[in-house]
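>> received
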Amino acid sequence: MTVERLLLSGDDAVALAALHAGVRLGTGYPGTPSTEILETFDQLGGRAQWSPNEKVALEVGIGSAFAGARTIVTMKHVGLNVAADALFTAAYTDVEGGLLVISADDPGMASSQNEQDNRHYARAAALPMLEPSDSQQAYDFTWLGLELSERWKIPVILRLTTRICHAKTVVRPRPALQTLPEPSFKRDVPARVMIPAYAKPAHLRLRQKLAEIAAWNEAEGPFEIHEGDATLGIIATGIGAMHAREAAPGASHLSFGLTYPLPIERLRAFADRVERLVVIEEGDPVLVDALRAVGLPAEGKPEMYRFGELNVERVRRILANDTSPEAVPPKGKPPELCPGCSHRGVFETLRDLDCIVSGDIGCYTLGVLPPFSAMDTCVCMGASIGVGLGLRHVLPEEQARRVVSVIGDSTFVHSGLTGLAEMVYNPPPTGHLVLILDNGTTAMTGQQEHPGTGRLLDHSATNLLNFEETARAMGVQNVHVIDTTSLKDDSLRDLITDLLARNETSLIVTRQPCVLAAPKIRLYEKANAEQRTATCAADLVD
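>> returned
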């Protein structure tokens, strides 16, 4: 029998494995490099949905797993910060269906505001973590993560990185599951209601689970040894294992997939067989510090290699202890707002008015660059409103009246609603002005839907969150909507000038579809209108 061979990215391999393994629900928030997982899962026929943010996505996933359904929750690395509140307590609970939390890290910050190493989350939350080194392992570890989750009734983290997510390698899939138990809720209050009386014994159970998983990892966890020259032994995980094998093909190599809890004795046995032991890992010295902590004489990489992605040449330099300056990569074309982007006119106006602009995460972050140079802060999703309010509270009045918060439509739903509540609850003496730049899509990550578009992940119609009505209901004093496709000269400038002079809370929604997404949006809306017409006609016949 010939085994099917597919060329898949890591993201696509995870999606295919989720389908084959019987995942009933995939939730998440789009963010490079994780976005394609749910999009592909949906295209393959799985049930996938975008949530307003990662915390909500994980909470929905926890509920699904409580009901006995296999579930995946996807996000990029900074998204796990947003989901962490639910994650840490979910670790104490018992999940019936497999719950796989997929964190896609971005070493080198190809499209992120930091390059945090989410391996720390496994240790901090006390959750098992799997790290694949290619698309085949991404496929296999998706199955394995769900199986481990069900066996020990614990959420499992699958940590991918940019290179794993987007590089393509051969995958040999296994036969899809044909039957799975139907979801059903079984009451188990001590395992699901984390009040102190139940959480204290739950913490003890969590540590017992980890001890059992560690023993399983020692005995039969995913582990691979390539015997070679005993003068050099390399321990590596994730994409680092692939780079290391190419950089030093004659060395002895050990790679393993369940990176927390560690299979310490198996690692110790390997270390005992080699003269020099080197750890190759992207990001922080997580693995090398853990090995040194148990007495293994492991060498890590010099500090200069802690930053950015590894590659074969960098691994060769690490093995040679080469700390000479690395070649400076050629400068690429700086990113810029698209020609015709509706954000351009907004940033030109803010620049000309000499506003102090508290910015946010999205395409519009590019307003910081020339020719606009109209953004002064950018921290994380939704921070524009809170940071802007903080500036307003303490700056001298002349400067305070120049502060404006700028946020996108998807980001506003993600984390801006609570900022708006803060503005209404604790208004600065000079008031405040928030601008929502609504381009009708989550543009920077690939034009995904969100609650403000009125369309689901598959672009079909659903309920729409109306920003201006929401703001009025929350108590914002001045709410204005401007269609920038028909914007008259100086009308936006005049409105901003007027609102900055008031001691009141104000919101301006500038609305114009993303120039790249607009043709697709028209097609989606046409298809949804036709579907509504067909549904109405069918109802009349009935």
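>> The chain has a mean pLDDT of 94.
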